[in-house]
Amino acid sequence: MDDADFMRGRVYGADHDDAGPRPGRAYAQLVGGPLDGLLLDVTDHAAGAELSEVALTTEIGRYGPGGRALYVRRPADGRRFDWRGDVPGVR
Q: Of 67, 72, 66, 68, whose CA–CA distance to 84 is shortest?
């Protein structure tokens, strides 16, 4: 199993020992970039305020520890967020 297979089906930000999706939660899939294949918990945004873009902290992006990966909700499929690039973290 390579790193990509290991990360697929896991929830961004979840505890490594129990990183699978949970019943009753809403998820979007991250597509492309350093977090490709991870799931993003959008439960708190599913009803009402729609989440259109996110900047997620990651150490495996272009800028290393503290850097951010930018993802934007796909217009035709709100259950997917497409990677738009990496940005350095705030110092």
A: 72
User: Residue 12 and residue 19: Cα distance in Å, rounded?
Assistant: 8
At position 56, the amino acid (one-letter code) is L
Instruction: Give pLDDT tens digits for 59-83.
Output: 887 887 889 999 999 988 888 999 9
Structure tokens that stand for 73 in this block: 């909700």
In this structure, are residues 67 and 42 in contact, taking their beta carbons and an 8 Å threshold? no
DSSP states of 25-75 as a string? --EEEEESSTTTT-EEE-HHHHSSS---EEEEEESSSTT-TTEEEEEEEET
